[in-house]
């Protein structure tokens, strides 16, 4: 049985490696766009086989390997865990959908072979990263993901702001790579080995030394940068000029890799309290800031980008609070939602236009104040109370309070227009019942998935949890004030629209390292100037 699992596990890693080899082959034989149709056909077959191999590996690991130890492909270097096979299946499934969508989306475009090449590299590198059990493999694969994604973001090289955002991402990635190397070196020095399994054994045997604690803090900072949290978040909102399937892949399967690594390194976080507090503070700050910015944005794709930043902040907060199982659920749900949202962005525009046809909704004080009480009435018994018949313990009460504050706006009900006053009671009752059902369903999902054996153990932090719950309550109070007396918060609204100017300093630093210069487009003198993100002498004017 163990040989069969090892064989299946090797297949799950071998097939994505074929994707990378296929990308190299396309580049080596210098395929042209005239052969794009055949290349897409072969690539879709490979992604389908990859998704199937990931599915077989997931079933094999979950059915035949009940333990928490990895199923080794290469001892101490590459291995599969229960959580990693689920995430691998998710990413490769999304890769299949995105590749199918891309073939139609890019039909008639130039540089399709270029796109296929780097998309294959991204999917293959992500699979290697997911199965990495050694610092060398993890850092190398993550760097390869960043470099390949960089190429996809620059698919349209004549779009200046796409290049600017790509440069900002490149700077963030290189800083994160440097911090990762330093962190891995310090941790390796104390543990004596580069294997993640050896690190876990070292932590189980005794407390973490100073060297390991410093390495853990550097590691957390590197992951925060990679996950597009404050203050290195700006590039994620500015890559909207890349093809839509690239945005879907970025938001659904690349930017959230930081959350996956945090969950995999949960024993290390539990041993270094300062690392967890960094996650809590930065995750909470990012969530609250991005949540305010979303309320002021109009562009659909930009709102989705800020939503991703807020969701990444919330997922990092969950990891900092020690709720790793919920973070894993959040990661999977966010990936599915964002892929769906970006791939149907055109329909989202139509839906938004329909919503804007309705009259502005006015909320009342009693409704806004009663909403948290109604949410708490559901979340506390559904999430926090233990189930005596099964012996299952509930989640912390502070987590139920935090979720109640986050879900309270679902209970907001505005005044009905004059022509609907006769139906007002029925409409309010229907909305109230549907919201109750939605929150009950979400609470049940959280409660059930909390019992799924993903191989990670939660370690809640009560003090930090109550601090986070109070911060979320304060955020809800700000939302209420913005609804009731928006004129008094006009300054806050302007600052929110500008993202509180956090990204400006980072942009200036990027432009100092890669100076841009404005020049007329040589192909069309009447077009607007365009920004070339490259150094060198200023071209002469014709």
From TrEMBL:
<dbReference type="GO" id="GO:0012505">
    <property type="term" value="C:endomembrane system"/>
</dbReference>
<keyword id="KW-1133">Transmembrane helix</keyword>
<feature type="transmembrane region" description="Helical">
    <location>
        <begin position="463"/>
        <end position="485"/>
    </location>
</feature>
<dbReference type="GO" id="GO:0015990">
    <property type="term" value="P:electron transport coupled proton transport"/>
</dbReference>
<comment type="function">
    <text>Part of an energy-coupled inorganic carbon pump.</text>
</comment>
<keyword id="KW-0472">Membrane</keyword>
<dbReference type="InterPro" id="IPR003945">
    <property type="entry name" value="NU5C-like"/>
</dbReference>
<feature type="transmembrane region" description="Helical">
    <location>
        <begin position="203"/>
        <end position="225"/>
    </location>
</feature>
<feature type="domain" description="NADH:quinone oxidoreductase/Mrp antiporter transmembrane">
    <location>
        <begin position="132"/>
        <end position="385"/>
    </location>
</feature>
<feature type="transmembrane region" description="Helical">
    <location>
        <begin position="395"/>
        <end position="412"/>
    </location>
</feature>
<comment type="subunit">
    <text>Forms a complex with DabA.</text>
</comment>
<protein>
    <recommendedName>
        <fullName>Probable inorganic carbon transporter subunit DabB</fullName>
    </recommendedName>
</protein>
<feature type="transmembrane region" description="Helical">
    <location>
        <begin position="6"/>
        <end position="25"/>
    </location>
</feature>
<keyword id="KW-0812">Transmembrane</keyword>
<feature type="transmembrane region" description="Helical">
    <location>
        <begin position="273"/>
        <end position="295"/>
    </location>
</feature>
<feature type="transmembrane region" description="Helical">
    <location>
        <begin position="46"/>
        <end position="65"/>
    </location>
</feature>
<dbReference type="GO" id="GO:0005886">
    <property type="term" value="C:plasma membrane"/>
</dbReference>
<feature type="transmembrane region" description="Helical">
    <location>
        <begin position="432"/>
        <end position="451"/>
    </location>
</feature>
<keyword id="KW-1003">Cell membrane</keyword>
<feature type="transmembrane region" description="Helical">
    <location>
        <begin position="85"/>
        <end position="106"/>
    </location>
</feature>
<dbReference type="InterPro" id="IPR046396">
    <property type="entry name" value="Transporter_DabB"/>
</dbReference>
<feature type="transmembrane region" description="Helical">
    <location>
        <begin position="175"/>
        <end position="191"/>
    </location>
</feature>
<dbReference type="GO" id="GO:0042773">
    <property type="term" value="P:ATP synthesis coupled electron transport"/>
</dbReference>
<feature type="transmembrane region" description="Helical">
    <location>
        <begin position="246"/>
        <end position="267"/>
    </location>
</feature>
<dbReference type="GO" id="GO:0003954">
    <property type="term" value="F:NADH dehydrogenase activity"/>
</dbReference>
<keyword id="KW-0813">Transport</keyword>
<dbReference type="GO" id="GO:0008137">
    <property type="term" value="F:NADH dehydrogenase (ubiquinone) activity"/>
</dbReference>
<feature type="transmembrane region" description="Helical">
    <location>
        <begin position="113"/>
        <end position="130"/>
    </location>
</feature>
<dbReference type="Pfam" id="PF00361">
    <property type="entry name" value="Proton_antipo_M"/>
</dbReference>
<comment type="similarity">
    <text>Belongs to the inorganic carbon transporter (TC 9.A.2) DabB family.</text>
</comment>
<feature type="transmembrane region" description="Helical">
    <location>
        <begin position="136"/>
        <end position="154"/>
    </location>
</feature>
<feature type="transmembrane region" description="Helical">
    <location>
        <begin position="363"/>
        <end position="383"/>
    </location>
</feature>
<dbReference type="InterPro" id="IPR001750">
    <property type="entry name" value="ND/Mrp_TM"/>
</dbReference>
């Amino acid at each position: 049985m163990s040989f069969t699992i090892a064989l299946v596990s090797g297949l799950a890693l071998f097939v994505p490696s074929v994707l990378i080899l296929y990308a190299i082959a396309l580049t080596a034989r210098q395929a042209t766009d005239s052969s794009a149709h055949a290349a897409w056909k072969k690539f879709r077959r490979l992604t389908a086989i990859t998704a199937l191999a990931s599915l077989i590996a997931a079933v094999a690991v979950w059915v035949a390997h009940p333990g928490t130890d990895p199923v080794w492909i290469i001892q101490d270097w590459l291995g599969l865990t229960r959580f990693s096979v689920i995430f691998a299946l998710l990413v490769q499934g999304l890769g299949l959908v995105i590749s199918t969508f891309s073939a139609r989306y890019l039909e008639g475009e130039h540089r399709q072979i270029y796109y296929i090449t780097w998309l294959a590299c991204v999917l293959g590198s992500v699979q290697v990263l997911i199965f990495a059990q050694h610092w060398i493999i993890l850092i190398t694969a993550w760097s390869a993901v960043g470099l390949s994604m960089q190429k996809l973001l620059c698919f349209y090289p004549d779009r200046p702001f796409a290049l600017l955002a790509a440069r900002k991402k490149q700077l963030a990635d290189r800083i994160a790579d440097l911090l990762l190397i330093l962190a891995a070196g310090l941790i390796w020095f104390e543990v004596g080995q580069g294997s993640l399994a050896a690190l876990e054994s070292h932590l189980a045997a005794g407390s973490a030394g100073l060297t390991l604690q410093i390495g853990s803090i550097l590691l957390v900072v590197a992951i925060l940068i990679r996950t597009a949290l404050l203050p290195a978040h700006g590039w994620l909102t500015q890559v909207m000029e890349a093809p839509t399937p690239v945005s879907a892949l970025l938001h659904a399967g690349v930017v959230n890799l930081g959350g996956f690594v945090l969950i995999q390194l949960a024993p290390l976080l539990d041993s270094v309290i300062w690392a967890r507090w960094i996650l809590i503070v930065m995750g909470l700050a990012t969530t609250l800031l991005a949540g305010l910015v979303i309320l002021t944005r109009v562009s659909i794709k930009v709102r989705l980008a800020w939503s991703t930043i807020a969701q990444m902040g919330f997922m990092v907060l969950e990891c900092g609070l020690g709720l790793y199982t919920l973070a894993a659920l959040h990661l999977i749900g966010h990936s599915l939602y964002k892929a769906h949202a970006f791939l149907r962005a055109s329909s989202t525009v139509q839906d938004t236009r329909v919503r804007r046809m309705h009259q502005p909704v006015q909320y009342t004080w009693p409704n806004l104040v009663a909403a948290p009480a109604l949410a708490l009435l559901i979340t506390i018994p559904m999430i926090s109370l233990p189930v005596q018949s099964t012996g299952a313990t509930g989640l912390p009460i502070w987590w139920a309070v935090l979720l109640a504050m986050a879900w309270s706006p679902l209970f907001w009900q505005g005044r009905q227009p004059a022509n609907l006053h006769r139906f007002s009671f029925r409409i309010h009752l229907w909305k109230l019942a549907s919201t109750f059902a939605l929150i009950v369903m979400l609470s049940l999902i959280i409660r059930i998935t909390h019992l799924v054996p993903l191989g990670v153990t939660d370690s809640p932090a009560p003090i930090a949890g109550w601090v986070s719950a109070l911060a979320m309550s304060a955020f809800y109070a700000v939302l209420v004030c913005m609804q009731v007396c928006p004129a008094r918060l006009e300054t806050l609204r302007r600052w929110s629209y500008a993202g509180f100017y956090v990204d400006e300093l980072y942009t200036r630093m990027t432009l100092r390292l890669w100076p841009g210069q404005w020049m007329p487009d040589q192909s069309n003198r009447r077009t607007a100037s365009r920004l070339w993100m490259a150094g060198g002498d200023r071209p002469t004017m014709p």
